[in-house]
């Protein structure tokens, strides 16, 4: 619409419109002879002006269009398979996690990797997959190693009480843990997170949805603070020397994926 409005003054002087004007008023008195010369009377100059205006408008729209980054285009088959392909063939996750399940779950979280520039989108995607790679060993693990032997029941949380005999250890791409996360994620996504936490390890789309749910509620809003802030949001115990090896591994994955996606990793990488 904006393009049409800006080109309208040029249209008013085109030969076609002049012919229409003359035909429409052919029964009226002939127009007075014009003196002088208008730039718009030259077909070549009109064409140049039209091209110039169109180029100016397209140049002005380019940054806005660049903000609408399609996640599916960035997370290509090659990118996804390049990660899961590094898992051993015997890994349970290798026949569980799929790109199609990732994209299916993404449909419920369309604000993921949106809201900024194209580079911002790529950085958030790189950060997400860096943490997923670290948490699951390149999509090898569906459940936390020795998870059943660990207690992730916060009995002080009365809103999401632990169900008898259920374990709330790490499951899925982001290794969702704790009863309060399972309860809240289940309510949001639509499954019984407290009564059937094992669903996260059985339904791959729900599994990815729990990762998106955690990310959008705890990480997405701070992505602009740098990758280090995302580490603190996911596992703050690793920061400040708590587990430098894990922090360095996460940063390594992140910088690698940024390189693959053709974007600079930014500042504040560690925590």
Write a brief structural summary:
The protein has helices at 2-11, 15-24, 43-67, 71-74, 77-84, 99-106, 118-136, 179-189, 204-218, 227-235, 244-261. With 271 residues, the chain is an all-alpha fold.
What does this protein look like?
- It is a single chain.
- With 271 residues, the protein is an all-alpha fold.
- The chain has one domain: Lysozyme, CATH 1.10.530.
- Helices cover 51% and strands 0% of the residues.
- It contains eleven helices and no strands.
- Helix 1 (2-11) runs antiparallel to helix 3, helix 6 crosses helix 9 (204-218) and helix 8 packs across helix 9 (204-218).
- The relative contact order is 0.10.
Helix coverage percent of residues?
40-55%
Terminal CA distance: 48 Å
- Global shape: globular
Helix-strand pattern: HHHHHHHHHHH
Give the number of helices: 11
Q: Give the assembly state of these chains.
A: single chain
What's the architecture, going by CATH? Orthogonal Bundle
CATH-defined fold name: Lysozyme
Low-confidence segments, ≥5 residues, pLDDT <50?
Answer: 1-68
Radius of gyration: 29 Å
Q: How many discrete structural domains?
A: 1
Name of the level-1 CATH class: Mainly Alpha
Mean pLDDT: 83
According to DSSP, the number of beta strands is 0
Main beta-sheet strand count, sense and barrel state:
none
Strand content: under 5%
């Amino acid at each position: 619409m904006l393009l049409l409005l800006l080109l309208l003054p040029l249209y008013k002087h085109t030969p076609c419109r002049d012919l229409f004007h003359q035909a429409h008023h052919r029964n009226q008195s002939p127009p007075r002879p014009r003196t002088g010369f208008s730039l718009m009377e030259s077909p070549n100059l009109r064409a140049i002006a039209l091209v110039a205006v169109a180029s100016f408008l397209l140049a002005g729209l380019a940054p806005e269009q660049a903000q609408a980054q399609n996640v599916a285009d960035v997370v290509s088959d090659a990118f996804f398979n390049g990660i899961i392909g590094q898992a051993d063939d015997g890994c349970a996750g290798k026949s569980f996690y799929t790109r199609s399940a990732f994209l299916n779950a993404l449909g419920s979280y369309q604000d993921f990797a949106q809201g900024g520039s194209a580079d911002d989108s790529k950085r958030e995607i790189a950060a997400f997959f860096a943490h997923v790679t670290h948490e699951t060993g390149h999509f090898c693990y569906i459940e936390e190693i020795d998870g059943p032997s660990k207690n992730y029941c916060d009995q002080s949380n009365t809103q999401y009480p632990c169900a008898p005999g259920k374990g709330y250890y790490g499951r899925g791409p982001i290794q969702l843990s704790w009863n309060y996360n399972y309860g809240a994620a289940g309510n949001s996504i639509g499954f019984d997170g407290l009564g059937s936490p094992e669903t996260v390890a059985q339904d791959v789309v729900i599994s990815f949805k729990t990762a998106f749910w955690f990310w959008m509620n705890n990480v997405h809003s701070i992505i602009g603070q740098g990758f280090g802030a995302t580490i603190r949001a996911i596992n703050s115990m690793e920061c400040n020397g708590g587990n430098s090896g894990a922090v360095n591994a996460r940063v390594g994955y992140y910088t690698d994926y940024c390189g693959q996606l053709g974007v600079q990793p930014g500042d504040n990488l560690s925590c």
